[in-house]
Amino acid sequence: MLCACSGEQFKLEEAPPQSPDSLATRDFSAGGLSSRTADWEPKIDDTQVDEVESTLKEALSLNYEEARALLGRLEYQRGNFDAALQVFQGIDIKGLTPRMVRAIAERTRQRKPRSKADIVVANVMSLHSVSLLLEAILLKAKSLEELGRYIEAAKECRIIVDTVESALPKGMPEGIGEDCKLQEMFHRALELLPNLWIKAGFLDEAVTAYRRALIKPWNLEHQRLAAVQKDLAKTLLYSGVEVSLPSQLQVWGPTTPKSNIEEAILLLLILMSKVGIQEIDWDAEIMDHLTFALSVTGMCESLTVHIEQILPGIYSRAERWYLLALCYSAAGQNEVALNLLKKACGSSEAKQRPHFPSFLFGAKLCSQDPSHAHEGINFSHEVIDLAKHRNEHFLDQGYKFLGMCYGAAARISVLDSERSIFQGESLKFLNRAVENGNGGPEAIFSLGLENAKQRNLDVAFDNMMMYSDMTVGSSGRGWQLLALIVSAQQRFKDAETIVDFALDEAGRMDQLELLRLKAVLQIAQQKPKQAVETYRILLALIHGKKEHWHEDKKLGQAIGFRHEAIKEKNLETEAWQDLATIYADIGSLIDAKSCIDKAQLIEFFSPRSWHITGRLLEAQSLYKEAFVSFSISLSIEPDYIPSIVSTAELFLKLGMQSLPIVRSFLMNALRLDPTNHDAWFNLGLVSKNEGSLQQAADFFQAAYELKLSAPIQKFE
Description:
There is one protein chain. With 716 residues, this protein is an all-alpha fold. Among the domains are: 2-109 and 119-215, Serine Threonine Protein Phosphatase 5, Tetratricopeptide repeat; 599-708, Serine Threonine Protein Phosphatase 5, Tetratricopeptide repeat (Alpha Horseshoe). The chain is 72% helix and 0% strand. Helix 26 (528-554) runs antiparallel to helix 27. Residues 13-37 are annotated as: Disordered. Pfam families: TPR_16 (PF13432), TPR_17 (PF13431). TPR repeats lie at residues 677-710. Keywords: TPR repeat.
């Protein structure tokens, strides 16, 4: 071989020993000619001389390329990447590419079995030759990669893909990998090319390379094909570059993925189905990426289906219930989530090691719903007990949730003595969570909120200032609560200044809520015109966002984000309701009715809309119709306090005979909210009408003091 490379004469009558991998040997044997002169020399006639001569010249030429390929491989294996690159650069890839394309196409074409006497088409390289040259190109690309020249490496690697794809436009035929390394070299190139583009920073090229590897049947093994699909999904999810599908791939009509994230979800769902039928091994990364993709698109409920389909043995029962609970909670179904957590923490798992995340999540969910406050207390005690033994860094989280659950239990307590005890316990455990230092800003926020609800306004103000310092003023709800605390101190102008400052720092959703708060503060300062202008800005922003949502829906991009849309819908309803209240206060009942009609077009079954409708009817002395509206409001939400109080006021206007009914309504309102000054005031009127003047004076005094510390909105 080296003699041929150095240009020495090739003697037919003394055939040099050929290695099994020699190109010349393979080409002759492939053509049905023996390398022994005695066997074939007498049989060659004049018409075959030129063909044999050209074949020999071709063989000598390819031997030179083969030698460089082998020498380059040796240098690469030794780690001499510069030397390997110099050797590989001596191979005329550009000149050989057309011949390699032809050889792959001819050699892989389906053909009938032939006898030894048949001669293949002249001047066609063998697949072994092509494999060796493709390996040389691949090693050249890897050498460039090792030297940090990623763009050049990607271009070299792309030559392999282009070459094979040009020769086999319909994909790789079966069985080609049995005789040579062509298929293996091509598969390695398919896997390497997108990684090189990623390292070079050309993410759009990487996505294109991944798609090329998947759109045709290249005979990739199941596991390798799954790896390519997973890598493409990861790139689509996290690259930050939107690479639309080319027109030739948009063959599914309206179901064609219209964005990177849709395509990624489709790939991950395919992979999960392969895991389900055990075509590929379980890969936790696939589930992680699918969880992320469905979460950011607001499709958490769909994720539950795939968690339930995971084969037994991957997750324990408690882990599976916990993951399902996370999904349902993210989808807004906290009741379902809590039931699953009760299973994970229940008697069926008593013999297993306690699943700490389930107890912690259960405590969190219960702390958000007063109706589950007592269950939350039990969850929180379990969290504290478990944290003392193996999760000490979660101890303060247990104290925080315990304090929040005690606060919620106080607000649903019927007995004053029990309520007082729960309020004390709430502050005790929240202060402990803050004092230990591991509760974080959320513990301070919860403490400030609880102090505000208990009307410890000065302490609550200090808590929120500390919270603001810890979050560097980046929390919209922190600014909201601080403004409400200041408004409860009757410093409306200062509260509005806080809101104005927060508007410059807040995100889009917080900005909408802060705008409404600003308008309510302007109403409290007797500035109806400014309040109406603020509501106009708020509604314009919401309307612009709705148009954006509709446009995204037409483009097929509005996959999720239902919670955000629901919040905006509620804000729009509340804005029209507030406007109706403004117009009612200034005596413009027609405008007020128009605003409340718009609110009911958005949400017909809103207790506040029916309550305001009742107040408008009451202002027109239509007491029977007003009573019907208040009744509808209470049928929608039986514990809606404003309608309970308004119903009591309406009964009070009917005269002495209805005083017991009025007292019953007002006591129910105070049971739900002991700090409601309107209920205390009307209860004083009842006592006055009954002749209990001292009791009436006490009720009026309570109403006056509570009104002085009442926020313009409910502390939440």
